[in-house]
Amino acid sequence: MIKLTTVSLQRARVGIFALPVCEDADIHSNPVLQRMDGQAKVLDEFSGKAKQEVVLYTPEGTLMKRCLCSGIGKKAAIDDEVLRCFAGRCVKKAIAAKQQKVMIAVPEADMLSIPWDRAVAAIAEGACLANHIFDKYKAEKKKKPLKEILLRVDKKPTKALQNLAQKAEIICSATHQAREWVSTPSNDKVPARLARMFTSAAKLPGLRVSVLDEAQLKKKKFGALLAVSVGSAHPPKLVEISYAPKNARKTIALVGKGVTFDTGGINLKPSSGLDLMKIDMSGAAAVAATMIAVSRLKPKYRVVGLMPLVENMPSGSAIRPGDIVRSFSGKTVEIGNTDAEGRLILIDAMAYAIKKYKPDTMIDLATLTGACVVGLGSKIAGVFSADKTLADAIAASGERTHECCWPMPLPEDYKELLKSELADISNMPSTRYGGAITAALFLSEFIGDTRWAHIDIAGPVFDKKGSDYCGPGALDSECGCCATCSIACRDCNAA
Ligand code: BES
Ligand code: ZN
Ligand code: ZN
User: How far is the CA of 176 from the centre of ligand 3 (A)?
Assistant: First the structure.
Protein backbone atom coordinates (compact mmCIF):
# COMPACT_ATOMS: atom_id res chain seq x y z
CA MET A 1 0.00 0.00 0.00
CA ILE A 2 1.36 3.41 -0.94
CA LYS A 3 0.30 6.69 0.65
CA LEU A 4 1.39 10.30 0.76
CA THR A 5 1.85 11.70 4.25
CA THR A 6 2.70 15.06 5.82
CA VAL A 7 3.52 13.57 9.23
CA SER A 8 5.95 15.63 11.31
CA LEU A 9 9.55 14.47 10.87
CA GLN A 10 10.19 14.87 14.58
CA ARG A 11 7.30 12.61 15.43
CA ALA A 12 7.43 9.96 12.69
CA ARG A 13 8.18 6.57 14.26
CA VAL A 14 9.69 4.56 11.45
CA GLY A 15 12.25 1.80 11.28
CA ILE A 16 13.69 3.18 8.08
CA PHE A 17 13.46 6.64 6.60
CA ALA A 18 14.93 7.21 3.14
CA LEU A 19 16.47 10.51 2.16
CA PRO A 20 17.59 11.42 -1.35
CA VAL A 21 20.89 13.30 -1.16
CA CYS A 22 22.14 15.38 -4.02
CA GLU A 23 25.87 15.71 -4.71
CA ASP A 24 26.09 19.41 -5.49
CA ALA A 25 23.06 20.92 -3.73
CA ASP A 26 20.76 20.50 -0.80
CA ILE A 27 17.34 19.65 -2.25
CA HIS A 28 15.53 19.92 1.08
CA SER A 29 14.33 23.03 2.83
CA ASN A 30 13.02 21.31 5.95
CA PRO A 31 15.64 21.81 8.71
CA VAL A 32 15.36 18.18 9.92
CA LEU A 33 16.16 16.89 6.45
CA GLN A 34 18.86 19.49 5.92
CA ARG A 35 20.55 18.34 9.13
CA MET A 36 20.52 14.67 8.06
CA ASP A 37 21.78 15.63 4.59
CA GLY A 38 24.64 17.53 6.21
CA GLN A 39 25.49 14.71 8.64
CA ALA A 40 25.74 12.22 5.79
CA LYS A 41 28.01 14.47 3.76
CA VAL A 42 30.42 14.86 6.68
CA LEU A 43 31.28 11.18 6.28
CA ASP A 44 34.33 10.56 4.07
CA GLU A 45 32.75 7.69 2.16
CA PHE A 46 29.67 9.66 1.15
CA SER A 47 29.24 12.66 -1.10
CA GLY A 48 25.80 12.09 -2.59
CA LYS A 49 27.10 10.56 -5.84
CA ALA A 50 24.49 8.39 -7.54
CA LYS A 51 24.06 5.01 -5.81
CA GLN A 52 26.25 5.84 -2.79
CA GLU A 53 24.55 4.94 0.47
CA VAL A 54 25.10 5.59 4.13
CA VAL A 55 22.92 4.85 7.14
CA LEU A 56 22.50 7.28 10.05
CA TYR A 57 21.22 5.44 13.11
CA THR A 58 18.69 7.16 15.43
CA PRO A 59 19.15 10.57 13.83
CA GLU A 60 19.06 13.40 16.34
CA GLY A 61 15.75 15.17 16.91
CA THR A 62 13.67 12.32 15.41
CA LEU A 63 12.09 9.06 16.55
CA MET A 64 13.43 7.21 13.49
CA LYS A 65 15.51 4.07 13.98
CA ARG A 66 17.59 4.81 10.93
CA CYS A 67 17.85 7.16 8.01
CA LEU A 68 19.11 5.72 4.76
CA CYS A 69 20.84 8.53 2.88
CA SER A 70 20.91 7.58 -0.77
CA GLY A 71 22.98 9.48 -3.32
CA ILE A 72 21.17 10.69 -6.43
CA GLY A 73 24.04 12.57 -8.12
CA LYS A 74 24.13 16.08 -9.51
CA LYS A 75 21.01 18.24 -9.28
CA ALA A 76 20.89 19.07 -12.99
CA ALA A 77 20.84 15.38 -13.90
CA ILE A 78 17.87 14.46 -11.70
CA ASP A 79 15.08 13.10 -13.86
CA ASP A 80 12.22 10.64 -13.43
CA GLU A 81 14.49 7.62 -13.84
CA VAL A 82 17.02 8.83 -11.23
CA LEU A 83 14.13 9.15 -8.76
CA ARG A 84 12.65 5.78 -9.75
CA CYS A 85 16.03 4.12 -9.14
CA PHE A 86 16.49 5.96 -5.83
CA ALA A 87 13.09 4.80 -4.55
CA GLY A 88 13.71 1.24 -5.80
CA ARG A 89 17.05 1.02 -3.99
CA CYS A 90 15.46 2.30 -0.76
CA VAL A 91 12.68 -0.26 -0.88
CA LYS A 92 15.14 -3.08 -1.56
CA LYS A 93 17.26 -1.92 1.38
CA ALA A 94 14.18 -1.76 3.63
CA ILE A 95 13.22 -5.30 2.62
CA ALA A 96 16.77 -6.52 3.30
CA ALA A 97 16.57 -4.84 6.74
CA LYS A 98 13.41 -6.91 7.41
CA GLN A 99 11.17 -3.88 7.65
CA GLN A 100 7.42 -3.83 7.08
CA LYS A 101 7.31 -0.24 5.98
CA VAL A 102 9.46 2.54 4.64
CA MET A 103 9.04 6.30 4.65
CA ILE A 104 10.59 8.08 1.70
CA ALA A 105 11.29 11.82 1.66
CA VAL A 106 10.02 13.42 -1.53
CA PRO A 107 12.09 16.48 -2.54
CA GLU A 108 10.11 19.69 -2.61
CA ALA A 109 8.58 20.99 -5.81
CA ASP A 110 10.84 24.03 -6.28
CA MET A 111 13.99 22.00 -5.60
CA LEU A 112 13.74 19.95 -8.79
CA SER A 113 13.94 20.71 -12.47
CA ILE A 114 11.15 18.27 -13.36
CA PRO A 115 7.49 18.95 -12.50
CA TRP A 116 6.63 17.84 -8.99
CA ASP A 117 3.77 15.53 -9.96
CA ARG A 118 6.16 13.66 -12.24
CA ALA A 119 8.68 13.37 -9.42
CA VAL A 120 6.05 11.98 -7.04
CA ALA A 121 4.84 9.51 -9.69
CA ALA A 122 8.41 8.38 -10.44
CA ILE A 123 9.20 7.79 -6.76
CA ALA A 124 5.92 5.90 -6.36
CA GLU A 125 6.70 3.75 -9.41
CA GLY A 126 10.25 2.90 -8.38
CA ALA A 127 9.14 2.06 -4.85
CA CYS A 128 6.17 -0.08 -5.92
CA LEU A 129 8.08 -1.90 -8.67
CA ALA A 130 10.89 -2.84 -6.28
CA ASN A 131 8.43 -4.12 -3.68
CA HIS A 132 8.07 -7.58 -5.19
CA ILE A 133 9.67 -10.94 -4.54
CA PHE A 134 9.12 -14.01 -6.66
CA ASP A 135 9.89 -16.89 -4.30
CA LYS A 136 7.08 -19.28 -5.17
CA TYR A 137 9.57 -22.04 -5.98
CA LYS A 138 11.78 -21.60 -2.89
CA ALA A 139 11.13 -23.52 0.33
CA GLU A 140 12.76 -20.83 2.38
CA LYS A 141 11.10 -17.44 1.91
CA LYS A 142 13.97 -15.20 2.95
CA LYS A 143 12.48 -11.83 2.08
CA LYS A 144 9.04 -10.33 2.48
CA PRO A 145 7.70 -7.36 0.53
CA LEU A 146 6.88 -4.22 2.53
CA LYS A 147 3.31 -3.77 3.69
CA GLU A 148 3.39 0.01 3.54
CA ILE A 149 5.24 2.63 1.54
CA LEU A 150 4.85 6.20 2.80
CA LEU A 151 5.90 9.16 0.67
CA ARG A 152 6.66 12.07 2.99
CA VAL A 153 5.78 15.47 1.52
CA ASP A 154 5.92 18.86 3.20
CA LYS A 155 2.73 20.36 1.76
CA LYS A 156 -0.71 18.77 2.05
CA PRO A 157 -1.07 16.72 -1.13
CA THR A 158 -3.88 17.48 -3.55
CA LYS A 159 -6.39 14.79 -4.50
CA ALA A 160 -4.79 14.66 -7.94
CA LEU A 161 -1.41 13.85 -6.41
CA GLN A 162 -2.87 11.11 -4.20
CA ASN A 163 -4.48 9.68 -7.34
CA LEU A 164 -1.12 9.62 -9.09
CA ALA A 165 0.32 7.43 -6.36
CA GLN A 166 -2.71 5.11 -6.53
CA LYS A 167 -2.38 4.89 -10.30
CA ALA A 168 1.29 3.99 -9.99
CA GLU A 169 0.37 1.26 -7.54
CA ILE A 170 -2.25 -0.19 -9.89
CA ILE A 171 0.12 -0.24 -12.85
CA CYS A 172 3.02 -1.64 -10.83
CA SER A 173 0.99 -4.45 -9.31
CA ALA A 174 -0.15 -5.44 -12.82
CA THR A 175 3.51 -5.34 -13.81
CA HIS A 176 4.39 -7.69 -10.93
CA GLN A 177 1.70 -10.04 -12.13
CA ALA A 178 3.07 -10.04 -15.67
CA ARG A 179 6.62 -10.60 -14.39
CA GLU A 180 5.48 -13.58 -12.34
CA TRP A 181 3.82 -15.16 -15.35
CA VAL A 182 6.97 -14.66 -17.43
CA SER A 183 9.25 -16.02 -14.68
CA THR A 184 7.03 -19.10 -14.19
CA PRO A 185 8.69 -22.17 -15.72
CA SER A 186 7.15 -23.60 -18.88
CA ASN A 187 6.14 -26.89 -17.24
CA ASP A 188 3.76 -24.85 -15.09
CA LYS A 189 2.34 -22.64 -17.83
CA VAL A 190 1.36 -24.87 -20.74
CA PRO A 191 -1.36 -23.11 -22.79
CA ALA A 192 -4.33 -24.46 -20.81
CA ARG A 193 -2.72 -23.54 -17.47
CA LEU A 194 -1.65 -20.11 -18.63
CA ALA A 195 -5.14 -19.49 -19.99
CA ARG A 196 -6.53 -20.37 -16.56
CA MET A 197 -4.03 -18.06 -14.85
CA PHE A 198 -5.08 -15.20 -17.15
CA THR A 199 -8.79 -15.85 -16.78
CA SER A 200 -8.74 -16.10 -13.02
CA ALA A 201 -6.64 -12.94 -12.70
CA ALA A 202 -9.08 -11.15 -15.02
CA LYS A 203 -12.17 -11.93 -12.94
CA LEU A 204 -12.58 -8.23 -12.26
CA PRO A 205 -15.37 -5.70 -12.59
CA GLY A 206 -15.74 -4.44 -16.12
CA LEU A 207 -13.83 -7.29 -17.81
CA ARG A 208 -15.33 -10.07 -19.91
CA VAL A 209 -13.22 -13.13 -20.49
CA SER A 210 -13.60 -15.97 -22.96
CA VAL A 211 -11.33 -18.74 -24.19
CA LEU A 212 -11.40 -20.50 -27.55
CA ASP A 213 -10.21 -24.12 -27.34
CA GLU A 214 -8.63 -26.26 -30.03
CA ALA A 215 -11.93 -27.50 -31.48
CA GLN A 216 -13.26 -23.94 -31.76
CA LEU A 217 -10.00 -22.73 -33.28
CA LYS A 218 -10.23 -25.51 -35.87
CA LYS A 219 -13.82 -24.65 -36.65
CA LYS A 220 -12.95 -20.99 -37.09
CA LYS A 221 -9.97 -21.91 -39.29
CA PHE A 222 -7.03 -20.54 -37.32
CA GLY A 223 -4.75 -22.46 -39.68
CA ALA A 224 -1.48 -20.65 -38.92
CA LEU A 225 -1.93 -20.74 -35.14
CA LEU A 226 -2.87 -24.44 -35.21
CA ALA A 227 0.14 -25.25 -37.39
CA VAL A 228 2.46 -24.04 -34.63
CA SER A 229 0.76 -25.95 -31.84
CA VAL A 230 0.25 -29.25 -33.70
CA GLY A 231 3.66 -30.58 -32.63
CA SER A 232 2.89 -30.15 -28.95
CA ALA A 233 1.07 -32.51 -26.59
CA HIS A 234 -0.55 -29.43 -25.08
CA PRO A 235 -3.44 -28.00 -27.11
CA PRO A 236 -3.61 -24.27 -27.94
CA LYS A 237 -5.94 -21.64 -26.50
CA LEU A 238 -6.96 -18.16 -27.51
CA VAL A 239 -7.81 -15.98 -24.53
CA GLU A 240 -9.91 -12.86 -25.09
CA ILE A 241 -10.38 -10.24 -22.39
CA SER A 242 -12.53 -7.24 -23.18
CA TYR A 243 -13.34 -4.02 -21.44
CA ALA A 244 -16.22 -2.06 -22.91
CA PRO A 245 -17.38 1.01 -20.98
CA LYS A 246 -20.71 2.58 -21.94
CA ASN A 247 -20.51 5.21 -24.66
CA ALA A 248 -16.98 4.18 -25.67
CA ARG A 249 -16.26 5.78 -29.02
CA LYS A 250 -13.00 4.04 -29.85
CA THR A 251 -11.66 0.51 -29.66
CA ILE A 252 -8.06 -0.46 -29.02
CA ALA A 253 -6.98 -4.05 -29.60
CA LEU A 254 -3.88 -5.40 -27.89
CA VAL A 255 -2.48 -8.71 -29.14
CA GLY A 256 0.31 -10.53 -27.30
CA LYS A 257 2.51 -13.40 -28.50
CA GLY A 258 1.95 -16.32 -26.14
CA VAL A 259 4.42 -19.09 -26.99
CA THR A 260 4.71 -20.86 -23.63
CA PHE A 261 7.98 -22.43 -24.77
CA ASP A 262 9.80 -21.98 -28.05
CA THR A 263 12.06 -24.90 -28.93
CA GLY A 264 12.15 -23.71 -32.55
CA GLY A 265 10.17 -26.80 -33.61
CA ILE A 266 11.77 -28.99 -36.31
CA ASN A 267 14.17 -26.08 -36.95
CA LEU A 268 15.32 -26.81 -33.41
CA LYS A 269 17.17 -24.03 -31.61
CA PRO A 270 20.71 -24.67 -30.34
CA SER A 271 20.83 -25.73 -26.69
CA SER A 272 22.71 -22.72 -25.39
CA GLY A 273 20.24 -20.29 -23.86
CA LEU A 274 17.27 -22.48 -24.73
CA ASP A 275 15.95 -22.25 -21.16
CA LEU A 276 15.36 -18.55 -21.76
CA MET A 277 12.64 -19.44 -24.23
CA LYS A 278 10.13 -19.72 -21.41
CA ILE A 279 9.85 -15.95 -21.83
CA ASP A 280 8.28 -16.30 -25.28
CA MET A 281 4.82 -15.61 -23.86
CA SER A 282 5.79 -12.20 -22.50
CA GLY A 283 3.68 -10.31 -25.03
CA ALA A 284 0.62 -12.24 -23.86
CA ALA A 285 1.55 -11.67 -20.19
CA ALA A 286 1.92 -7.94 -20.84
CA VAL A 287 -1.47 -7.77 -22.56
CA ALA A 288 -3.27 -9.78 -19.84
CA ALA A 289 -1.69 -7.60 -17.13
CA THR A 290 -2.60 -4.44 -19.06
CA MET A 291 -6.23 -5.59 -19.08
CA ILE A 292 -6.09 -5.98 -15.29
CA ALA A 293 -4.76 -2.43 -14.98
CA VAL A 294 -7.39 -1.23 -17.47
CA SER A 295 -10.22 -2.66 -15.34
CA ARG A 296 -8.93 -0.55 -12.42
CA LEU A 297 -7.98 2.60 -14.30
CA LYS A 298 -11.21 2.66 -16.30
CA PRO A 299 -10.27 4.46 -19.52
CA LYS A 300 -13.08 5.91 -21.65
CA TYR A 301 -12.64 3.60 -24.62
CA ARG A 302 -13.09 -0.06 -25.37
CA VAL A 303 -9.95 -2.16 -24.92
CA VAL A 304 -9.71 -5.78 -26.03
CA GLY A 305 -6.80 -8.07 -25.28
CA LEU A 306 -6.09 -11.18 -27.32
CA MET A 307 -3.61 -13.79 -26.23
CA PRO A 308 -2.93 -16.71 -28.58
CA LEU A 309 -1.26 -19.42 -26.46
CA VAL A 310 0.72 -22.30 -27.99
CA GLU A 311 3.81 -24.39 -27.32
CA ASN A 312 6.31 -24.73 -30.18
CA MET A 313 7.64 -28.31 -30.07
CA PRO A 314 9.36 -30.70 -32.47
CA SER A 315 7.61 -34.06 -32.72
CA GLY A 316 6.20 -36.62 -35.14
CA SER A 317 3.15 -34.44 -35.57
CA ALA A 318 4.97 -31.10 -35.86
CA ILE A 319 4.82 -28.90 -38.96
CA ARG A 320 7.79 -29.25 -41.31
CA PRO A 321 9.78 -26.63 -43.17
CA GLY A 322 8.19 -26.42 -46.61
CA ASP A 323 4.66 -27.09 -45.37
CA ILE A 324 1.97 -24.66 -46.53
CA VAL A 325 -0.85 -23.59 -44.24
CA ARG A 326 -3.95 -21.45 -44.74
CA SER A 327 -4.18 -18.63 -42.20
CA PHE A 328 -7.38 -17.22 -40.65
CA SER A 329 -7.26 -14.38 -43.18
CA GLY A 330 -7.45 -16.85 -46.08
CA LYS A 331 -3.88 -16.15 -47.27
CA THR A 332 -1.55 -19.14 -47.50
CA VAL A 333 1.85 -19.19 -45.77
CA GLU A 334 4.83 -21.36 -46.67
CA ILE A 335 6.65 -22.42 -43.50
CA GLY A 336 10.24 -21.60 -44.42
CA ASN A 337 11.28 -22.03 -40.81
CA THR A 338 9.33 -23.50 -37.89
CA ASP A 339 11.21 -21.21 -35.50
CA ALA A 340 9.50 -18.17 -37.01
CA GLU A 341 6.34 -19.26 -35.17
CA GLY A 342 5.43 -16.04 -33.35
CA ARG A 343 4.38 -14.31 -36.55
CA LEU A 344 2.13 -17.27 -37.40
CA ILE A 345 0.08 -17.11 -34.23
CA LEU A 346 -0.02 -13.32 -34.34
CA ILE A 347 -1.42 -13.04 -37.86
CA ASP A 348 -4.35 -15.29 -36.96
CA ALA A 349 -5.07 -13.50 -33.69
CA MET A 350 -4.81 -10.10 -35.38
CA ALA A 351 -7.00 -11.04 -38.34
CA TYR A 352 -9.57 -12.39 -35.88
CA ALA A 353 -9.35 -9.20 -33.77
CA ILE A 354 -9.95 -7.08 -36.87
CA LYS A 355 -12.91 -9.18 -37.99
CA LYS A 356 -14.55 -9.38 -34.58
CA TYR A 357 -13.80 -5.99 -33.00
CA LYS A 358 -12.97 -3.66 -35.91
CA PRO A 359 -10.43 -1.80 -33.75
CA ASP A 360 -9.52 1.83 -34.42
CA THR A 361 -5.98 1.01 -33.28
CA MET A 362 -4.28 -2.34 -32.85
CA ILE A 363 -0.96 -2.93 -31.11
CA ASP A 364 0.83 -6.25 -30.89
CA LEU A 365 3.59 -7.05 -28.41
CA ALA A 366 5.91 -9.93 -29.14
CA THR A 367 9.30 -11.41 -28.35
CA LEU A 368 9.50 -11.80 -32.09
CA THR A 369 13.11 -11.77 -33.27
CA GLY A 370 16.67 -12.26 -32.12
CA ALA A 371 17.51 -9.70 -34.80
CA CYS A 372 15.80 -6.97 -32.76
CA VAL A 373 18.05 -7.83 -29.82
CA VAL A 374 21.10 -7.67 -32.09
CA GLY A 375 19.99 -4.31 -33.47
CA LEU A 376 18.78 -2.52 -30.34
CA GLY A 377 20.34 -4.45 -27.46
CA SER A 378 18.66 -5.64 -24.32
CA LYS A 379 17.12 -2.41 -23.09
CA ILE A 380 15.30 -1.12 -26.15
CA ALA A 381 12.21 -2.44 -27.88
CA GLY A 382 11.61 -1.87 -31.60
CA VAL A 383 8.39 -0.12 -32.68
CA PHE A 384 7.10 -0.61 -36.18
CA SER A 385 4.18 1.32 -37.60
CA ALA A 386 3.22 2.92 -40.87
CA ASP A 387 1.44 5.52 -38.75
CA LYS A 388 4.11 7.91 -37.53
CA THR A 389 1.84 9.51 -34.93
CA LEU A 390 1.21 6.13 -33.36
CA ALA A 391 4.90 5.11 -33.41
CA ASP A 392 5.91 8.46 -31.92
CA ALA A 393 3.22 8.24 -29.23
CA ILE A 394 4.47 4.78 -28.21
CA ALA A 395 8.08 5.99 -28.16
CA ALA A 396 7.07 9.05 -26.11
CA SER A 397 5.13 6.93 -23.65
CA GLY A 398 8.12 4.57 -23.35
CA GLU A 399 10.33 7.55 -22.64
CA ARG A 400 8.08 8.64 -19.78
CA THR A 401 8.30 5.20 -18.15
CA HIS A 402 11.93 4.60 -19.16
CA GLU A 403 10.90 1.64 -21.29
CA CYS A 404 12.64 2.76 -24.40
CA CYS A 405 10.90 1.98 -27.70
CA TRP A 406 12.77 2.93 -30.85
CA PRO A 407 10.82 3.64 -34.06
CA MET A 408 11.99 1.31 -36.85
CA PRO A 409 11.31 1.43 -40.61
CA LEU A 410 8.83 -0.66 -42.60
CA PRO A 411 10.33 -0.34 -46.12
CA GLU A 412 7.92 -1.44 -48.83
CA ASP A 413 10.71 -2.82 -51.05
CA TYR A 414 11.87 -5.32 -48.40
CA LYS A 415 8.56 -7.12 -48.83
CA GLU A 416 9.98 -9.04 -51.76
CA LEU A 417 12.26 -10.84 -49.28
CA LEU A 418 9.15 -12.69 -48.07
CA LYS A 419 8.10 -14.03 -51.49
CA SER A 420 7.19 -17.69 -51.78
CA GLU A 421 7.17 -19.63 -55.07
CA LEU A 422 4.15 -21.66 -54.05
CA ALA A 423 2.20 -19.80 -51.35
CA ASP A 424 1.04 -16.20 -50.90
CA ILE A 425 3.93 -15.45 -48.54
CA SER A 426 6.79 -17.19 -46.68
CA ASN A 427 7.29 -16.88 -42.94
CA MET A 428 11.06 -16.98 -43.52
CA PRO A 429 12.79 -14.08 -45.28
CA SER A 430 15.35 -14.87 -47.98
CA THR A 431 18.08 -13.08 -45.99
CA ARG A 432 18.83 -12.90 -42.29
CA TYR A 433 19.74 -9.22 -42.54
CA GLY A 434 17.06 -6.90 -41.21
CA GLY A 435 15.26 -9.80 -39.50
CA ALA A 436 13.24 -7.59 -37.13
CA ILE A 437 12.03 -5.52 -40.08
CA THR A 438 11.06 -8.48 -42.28
CA ALA A 439 9.18 -10.01 -39.33
CA ALA A 440 7.21 -6.77 -38.91
CA LEU A 441 6.60 -6.60 -42.67
CA PHE A 442 5.25 -10.15 -42.57
CA LEU A 443 2.73 -9.09 -39.89
CA SER A 444 1.83 -5.97 -41.87
CA GLU A 445 0.51 -8.17 -44.69
CA PHE A 446 -2.34 -9.32 -42.44
CA ILE A 447 -3.69 -6.13 -40.91
CA GLY A 448 -5.51 -4.63 -43.90
CA ASP A 449 -5.99 -0.90 -43.38
CA THR A 450 -6.19 -1.09 -39.58
CA ARG A 451 -4.08 1.49 -37.75
CA TRP A 452 -1.46 -0.80 -36.24
CA ALA A 453 1.86 -0.89 -34.42
CA HIS A 454 4.09 -3.83 -33.60
CA ILE A 455 6.43 -3.73 -30.60
CA ASP A 456 9.27 -6.28 -30.67
CA ILE A 457 10.16 -6.77 -27.00
CA ALA A 458 12.67 -9.63 -27.40
CA GLY A 459 15.48 -7.41 -26.03
CA PRO A 460 14.09 -5.93 -22.82
CA VAL A 461 12.22 -9.07 -21.86
CA PHE A 462 14.65 -10.49 -19.36
CA ASP A 463 17.47 -9.43 -17.07
CA LYS A 464 19.25 -12.12 -15.10
CA LYS A 465 20.72 -9.60 -12.66
CA GLY A 466 17.78 -7.28 -12.08
CA SER A 467 18.09 -3.52 -11.60
CA ASP A 468 17.46 -0.88 -8.94
CA TYR A 469 13.72 -1.41 -9.11
CA CYS A 470 13.34 -4.81 -10.76
CA GLY A 471 14.10 -8.18 -9.30
CA PRO A 472 16.10 -10.61 -11.46
CA GLY A 473 14.08 -12.28 -14.21
CA ALA A 474 11.27 -11.02 -16.33
CA LEU A 475 11.37 -7.38 -17.22
CA ASP A 476 9.49 -6.89 -20.40
CA SER A 477 6.17 -7.08 -18.79
CA GLU A 478 7.02 -3.74 -17.51
CA CYS A 479 7.89 -2.61 -20.94
CA GLY A 480 4.79 -4.10 -22.38
CA CYS A 481 2.55 -3.31 -19.54
CA CYS A 482 3.55 0.23 -18.78
CA ALA A 483 4.00 1.27 -22.36
CA THR A 484 0.66 -0.14 -23.39
CA CYS A 485 -1.00 1.05 -20.23
CA SER A 486 0.24 4.49 -21.00
CA ILE A 487 -1.32 4.26 -24.40
CA ALA A 488 -4.51 2.73 -23.18
CA CYS A 489 -4.90 4.80 -20.09
CA ARG A 490 -3.27 8.17 -20.45
CA ASP A 491 -4.66 10.90 -22.59
CA CYS A 492 -1.99 10.58 -25.21
CA ASN A 493 -2.66 11.16 -28.87
CA ALA A 494 -2.39 7.44 -29.66
CA ALA A 495 -5.87 6.98 -28.29
N1 BES B 1 11.21 -16.38 -29.82
C2 BES B 1 12.13 -16.15 -30.85
C3 BES B 1 12.79 -14.77 -30.80
C4 BES B 1 13.63 -14.44 -29.58
C5 BES B 1 15.00 -14.53 -29.64
C6 BES B 1 13.05 -13.98 -28.42
C7 BES B 1 15.77 -14.20 -28.55
C8 BES B 1 13.82 -13.64 -27.31
C9 BES B 1 15.18 -13.74 -27.38
C10 BES B 1 11.45 -16.28 -32.20
O11 BES B 1 10.38 -17.16 -32.26
C12 BES B 1 12.46 -16.77 -33.18
O13 BES B 1 12.93 -17.85 -32.99
N14 BES B 1 12.76 -15.97 -34.20
C15 BES B 1 13.70 -16.34 -35.21
C16 BES B 1 13.15 -15.95 -36.56
C17 BES B 1 13.93 -16.48 -37.73
C18 BES B 1 13.85 -17.98 -37.78
C19 BES B 1 13.37 -15.88 -38.99
C20 BES B 1 15.00 -15.60 -34.90
O21 BES B 1 14.95 -14.48 -34.41
O22 BES B 1 16.06 -16.16 -35.14
ZN1 ZN C 1 10.96 -19.17 -32.65
ZN1 ZN D 1 9.32 -17.41 -30.48
Answer: 22
pLDDT, one tens digit per residue, over 153-191 is 988 889 999 999 999 999 999 999 999 999 999 999 999
d(CA 342, CA 456): 11
Is any ligand 1 atom within 6 A of the Cβ of residue 274? no
Q: Is the CB of 370 under 6 A from ligand 1?
A: yes
CA Rg, the chain, in Å? 24
User: Catalytic residue numbers?
Assistant: 269, 343
For the beta sheet containing 66-71, the strands, ordered from the edge strand earlier in sequence to the opposite edge, are 2-5, 148-152, 101-105, 17-21, 66-71, 53-57
Q: Where are the beta strands (DSSP E) in 298-457?
A: 302-312, 324-326, 332-334, 361-366, 381-384, 405-408, 425-426, 451-456
For residue 140, the SS3 value is coil
Rounded Cα–Cα distance for residues 54 and 266 (Å): 55
* Helix extents (H) in 107-256: 116-130, 159-183, 191-201, 214-219, 223-229
Whole-number Å distance, alpha carbon 224 to ligand 3 midpoint, is 14
Nearby residues for ligand 3 (ion, Cβ within 5 Å):
259, 262, 280, 342
**pTM score, whole prediction:** 0.95
In tens, the pLDDT along 116-149 reads 999 999 999 999 999 999 999 999 999 999 999 9
Residue 262 CB–ligand 1 contact under 6 Å: yes
71: which strand partners?
21
Q: What is the mean pLDDT of residues 18-24?
A: 96
3-state secondary structure of 207: strand
